[in-house]
Structure to design on (103 residues):
């Protein structure tokens, strides 16, 4: 087994190129671009109106920025509404309060 110098993928010895990025064995410069991970924050409340939940979610999505937001979803179970904002963040980013659900 060998590790690709560019993307860090583990490749079996029988291959002379990385299967993921096609870099030849022993060549390439490490990829310093931070990897992204998907995160979410949800807004929930039995006593909150849909307008309040969506307004809070929209304010959060605006703060995250349009280039990072993947989407917004919602669901309702009896009288409990949930609005979730899905967004990209970096793999190395520590979880911040915005990654945590509302109490």
């Amino acid at each position: 087994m060998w590790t690709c110098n560019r993307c860090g993928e583990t490749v079996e010895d029988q291959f002379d190129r990385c299967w993921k990025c096609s870099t030849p064995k022993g060549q390439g410069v490490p990829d310093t671009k931070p990897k992204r991970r998907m995160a979410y924050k949800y807004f929930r409340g039995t006593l909150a109106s849909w307008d309040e939940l969506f307004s809070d979610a929209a304010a959060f999505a605006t703060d995250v920025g349009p280039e990072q937001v993947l989407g917004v979803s919602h669901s309702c179970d009896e009288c409990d509404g949930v609005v979730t904002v899905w967004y990209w963040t970096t793999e190395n980013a520590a979880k911040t309060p915005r990654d945590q659900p509302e109490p």
About this structure: Residues 1-32 form one domain.
